[in-house]
Automatic annotation (TrEMBL):
SUPFAM superfamilies: S-adenosyl-L-methionine-dependent methyltransferases. Keywords: Methyltransferase, Transferase. The keyword Electron transport does not apply. PANTHER family: GERANYL DIPHOSPHATE 2-C-METHYLTRANSFERASE (PTHR44068:SF11), ZGC:194242 (PTHR44068). It comes from Nocardioides fonticola. This is Class I SAM-dependent methyltransferase. One of its GO terms (molecular function) is methyltransferase activity. Gene3D superfamilies: Vaccinia Virus protein VP39. GO terms for biological process: methylation. It holds the Pfam family Methyltransf_11.
């Protein structure tokens, strides 16, 4: 279940790519399949071990192009262990809403992105997330849970200014290139979960809707694909923002 559109991101075989806050690795695996030189980055050593195992299995099964490379790296999003401009493409999917110092994390993403490189950031969309918070305190008060709800304007502002914050020059501001919405079928599921109890997986309505989502993910029936296309712009649970780092300081302007 992918959130980011890699065609829109501009991913090409041979690109050096970072999946920051990779979790179980869903985006890292797709970037590897597309021929990227992938680093899956996270704080969770157990999740990273699982990601490494699947990278190895994908290579052995021939699911990645010859020459593509994939590895894992554990660390802190506030101090990425990579050189300036090391990556051609970066994905940060559903991670910034968990980080208290999100501005520093964004600065680090911009720092390690090469000039001309592209960045995709996804976070929970404002309206579906507000409904979740109002229905259930447990949804966001859990350890490691969501600590903020972004508007598109807030996140665009933080990212486009991050280049300025890094080196003090106005010409390196990130360029916002557009946004998408994803997972429109998933927002009602979380509203149900928040209404009946986020830990109440046995509730009949939650179980029934979960079976629907499993059908969507595993079988991709056309009727649900169509429903998703209709619902994504209206109630898509995730908002995806795309940015580009200027080739030179003079490109972005003041």
């Amino acid at each position: 279940m992918l959130t980011v559109d890699f065609d829109r991101l501009g991913l090409r075989p041979g690109d050096r790519v970072l999946d920051m806050g990779c979790g179980a690795g869903r985006h890292a695996f797709e970037m590897y399949r597309r021929g990227g030189d992938v680093i899956a980055f996270d704080m969770d050593a157990d999740e990273l071990a699982g990601v490494r195992e699947l990278f190895v299995a994908m290579k052995e099964a021939g699911e990645a192009p010859v020459g593509a490379e994939a590895d894992i790296k554990q660390g802190d999003a506030l101090s990425l262990p990579f050189a300036d401009g090391e990556f051609d493409r970066i994905v940060a999917a559903e991670v910034l809403e968990h980080i208290h110092d999100d501005v520093t994390a964004i600065k680090e993403l911009v720092r390690v992105l090469r000039p001309g490189g592209t960045l995709a950031i996804s976070v929970p969309r404002w309206l579906p997330e507000v409904i979740n918070w109002k229905l259930s305190a447990d949804y966001h008060n859990a350890e490691g849970g969501h600590i903020r709800i972004y508007t598109d304007h807030e996140l665009i502002d933080k990212v486009t200014k991050a280049g300025r914050f890094n080196d003090g020059t106005p010409g390196t501001a990130m360029i916002f290139e557009g946004k998408d919405y994803a997972h429109g079928l998933h927002a009602p599921y979380w509203w149900i979960k928040c209404a009946v109890g986020v830990e109440n997986d046995g509730h009949p309505l939650a179980k029934a809707y979960h079976r629907l989502l499993v059908w969507e993910i595993m079988k991709q029936p056309k009727v649900l694909q169509l429903a998703g296309k209709v619902l994504d712009p209206m109630i898509g649970k995730s908002m995806v923002l795309y940015f580009r780092k200027p080739e030179t300081a003079g490109v972005a302007g003041a």
